From TrEMBL:
The keyword Transmembrane does not apply. The lineage of its organism: Eukaryota, Metazoa, Spiralia, Gnathifera, Rotifera. This is VCBS repeat-containing protein. Keywords: Signal. SUPFAM superfamilies: Integrin alpha N-terminal domain (SSF69318). The keyword Iron does not apply. InterPro entries: FG-GAP, Integrin_alpha_N. It comes from the Eukaryota. Coiled coil: none annotated.
Length: 96
C-alpha cells in the first residue's frame, strides 16, 4: 500500500519523478517521468519492514538527490544513494 508520495527530479533531466513509500511491501518505488505526464513502471528498492516516510537530500555531495527513509519496524533510518540515471544503491541503515 502506498503510504507516502512526493515528486523530485532524481535523474537530472529537469522533470519531476515520483517517489512512493510502500509501507506494506517494505520498499520505496521510483517512477521516472518519461514526458507529457507519463511515467515509467515503478522500480522498487527494499527498505525492510515498515517504511513510513521519505525525503531526498544530497547526503554525499555528488549533486544528485539521495533517498532517506524512516523505517518504523526496526526503528532505523535508511539511505539509498543515487547512482545516477534514476537508479539507487541498496539501502544502508543507521540505528535511531
Amino acid at each position: 500500500m502506498p503510504y507516502y508520495v512526493f515528486a523530485v527530479d532524481v535523474n537530472g533531466d529537469g522533470k519531476p519523478d515520483i517517489i512512493v513509500v510502500n509501507y506494506d511491501s517494505g520498499n520505496v518505488g521510483v517512477l521516472l517521468n518519461i514526458a507529457n505526464g507519463t511515467f515509467a513502471a515503478q522500480t522498487t528498492y527494499s527498505t525492510g519492514a515498515g517504511p513510513f516516510e521519505a525525503a531526498t537530500a544530497d547526503v554525499n555531495g555528488d549533486g544528485k538527490p539521495d533517498i532517506i527513509v524512516a523505517n518504523s519496524n526496526p526503528n532505523n533510518v535508511g539511505v539509498l544513494l543515487n547512482i545516477g540515471n534514476g537508479t539507487f544503491a541498496a539501502q544502508t541503515t543507521y540505528s535511531t
